[in-house]
Amino acid sequence: MADTVIRKQEPADVPALAGRWTICAMLFVATTINYMDRQVLSILKPILSGATLHLHPLLPGWPTVESSINLNDQQYGNILAAFQIAYALGVIFAGRLVDRLGCRKGYPVVTGLWSLAAMGHALVSSIIGFAVARFLLGLGESGNFPAAVKATAEWFPPKERALATGIFNSGAGVGAILAPLAVPWVALHFGWRASFLITGVFSAAWIVWWSIRYRTPVKTVSTIASVEAPTPHPTVAWWTLLRYRQAWAFMAGKFLTDPVWWFFLFWLPQYFNSRFKLDLSHIGPPLVIVYVISTFGSIYGGWLPKGFVRAGMSLKSARISAMLVCACLVVPICVAGGLHSEWLAIGLLSLAAAAHQGWSANIFTTASDMFPSQYVGTVVSFGQVAGALGGAIFQPVAGHILQLTHSFVPLFLFSAFAYLLALLMLRLLAPGLQKALPGE
Asked: pLDDT by residue (tens digit) across 232-255?
């Protein structure tokens, strides 16, 4: 019995560097690069609205002027919508691509696509050009989370998945931290076009690392405590998964809450610039603080269900309780639109961003709680589509509101209560996070 081996596609030895936590580290790095790429435009938005002063790269101290794109709030919202629509379209196929090719082959493909698109922003010189580049970036980046969540489901048992997801998902915060540290300096010294090129080398190195290290794990009876062996299930067509209320519960949660995180990523530089008059050389520290704290929120939110289990809760009750805590911690942000204190704004935004990341770690894990591992990539892709469509609606609406009113108040009010509404939908559609397929 102890010698029985349950084989899955291309079984191989566990990578030498600490097994599954090495996999988690690689997922963390990929997510960091992913979020650096998508954050660059939002940081540059204030300077793309007017003439840009920067230092000549060959003549230190000699300022030059770079012409702007004259980007207003409405146009910016439309560009973001192009990204979100492409993200929604891409993720429809990304989950299936990763399920079909496997994580080892599929993940480098999507990483290479989004990296090329990110660097392509440096070649454009018009609003339409930015929209096209952003559309291509959305297509490529759509594959990151389906691949990462699938890899987590392959390598981690259910009780550890939220923690592992929280750790790799914290790369979103780290990427958002590194971007405001690096992008303003590069833009001021070498021009805004150079800012879109800085992550290409990191992406290339990551693809090599992943291709060498990642293998689908061998699963034996002796290692079931470390990695859950899948129970055989009849193959079902991907679209039939939409018959299950659990899939719609996951999608509803992502539709309502993903736009809030996109709002934090894409509009906070504009918020600090318009509300507190912070220019490119001063906008970095507030953003860094917000995203540093969000990183801790991701890890702690991923650990929280484990803490509730130790207190005597069932795993699924612990997951729901952790999501409730995170949802409540976002509510204070409802007053952020009218604040006059920069530091109070930073504090509330930091709390909300951390709570979102904790929420995200847990809602991603509900997909593997409710579906077999062979369908997790597809179900996650459904959720990513829903979240991207929510963002595609939110971004132009946000741009329109800001263009007309110059007020962030309505946007923060929506953000404050989106999570409680999403949790209610999850409880109504998937009470108890019951398994979707019979025999599970």
From this structure: 455 667 778 888 999 999 999 999
